[in-house]
Amino acid sequence: MLAALAPHAGRAHVVGLTGPPGVGKSTTSSAVVARYRRQGLTVAVLAVDPTSPFSGGALLGDRVRMGEHAGDRGVFIRSMATRGHLGGLSSAAPQAVRVLDAAGFDVVLLETVGVGQSEVEVAGTADTTVVLVAPGLGDGVQAAKAGILEVADVLVVNHADRPGADRTVRDLRAAVALGARADGAWQPAVVRTVATTGEGVGALVEAVAAHRAALGETGLLERRRHRAAREVEALALDAVRARIAGLGGGDGLVRLAARVAGGELDPHGAAERLLTALEPQPSAEGLSERR
To answer: In 10 A of CB 195, how many CB atoms?
Structure first.
């Protein structure tokens, strides 16, 4: 199915929306969708919810905050669980984005789970990455060192009506200035919003559009090549893991692990044996032909 859809993908603007838990990602997503719809654009939303490490279940509740769009035929909202995948997304998210892209939506909005400083996978999946923060993020040093901020194309201070918003904006702008490049490359815009009232959402959508224009066709293609490389690599690694799980006999992972734990084999040697076991073995006919 994905092979059949491939020629139809590549037209949508994929916008990633990420940030810490409770920062207002779903409410902001809903407000952004409303803004795009007023512009006459169709929007697909892929909202990723965390899977419980204890029960294995996921609430998939992000759609509750987007109920106002339930009857809009120009909006499609799909929730999916992480299923234990790290990085803020589900392992199936890139394929789901491709399906929504091929379906003809103008914008695909990818909302991650609540993330910390190191879950930056969304940057490798989106054309434009929007990072939401809220007042109380921390001081300037905290803002400068947070890895999640380094992947932002647009920085949004949501709940900007709360005390401390001015300081948060100031700290983020200082952090952006520290990383400013002299070659005229895009510098992350800092936008203030109050998603519950819609305040500043127009400026956010304009900043996303400005980033898309700044990328140009060459920059956009480069990002999508990088995204495709990550997706292919992830699928290949999943296939290798599946083959490792299917190995039996003396080269099985469990038996190799037991030998490492018992001091009979070092981890590097065990890994080499595992890789050797994954290599296709020549058939008897092949050996006789070589001779």
So the answer is: 25
**18 with 132: CB under 8 angstroms?**
yes
Pick out the chain residues at pLDDT < 50: 118, 139-141, 144, 287
| Cβ proximity of 91 and 83 under 8 Å | yes
- Per this entry, what is the length of the chain? 291
Sheet containing strand 154-157, strands side by side: 75-81, 43-49, 107-111, 13-18, 128-133, 154-157, 189-192
Domain range enclosing 157: 2-217
Strands 107-111, 43-49: pairing is: parallel
DSSP calls for 110-144: EEPPP--SS--GGGGT-SEEEEEE-TTS--HHHHH
Quick one: pLDDT at residue 45? Answer: 93
Is pTM, for the whole model, over 0.90? no
Residues 205 and 258 grouped into a single domain: no
Q: Do 39 and 86 fall within a single domain?
A: yes
Whether 234 maps to a domain, the answer reads no
Q: How many structural domains does the chain have?
A: 2
pLDDT of residue 190: 94
Torsions phi, psi of 14, nearest 5? Answer: -90, 115
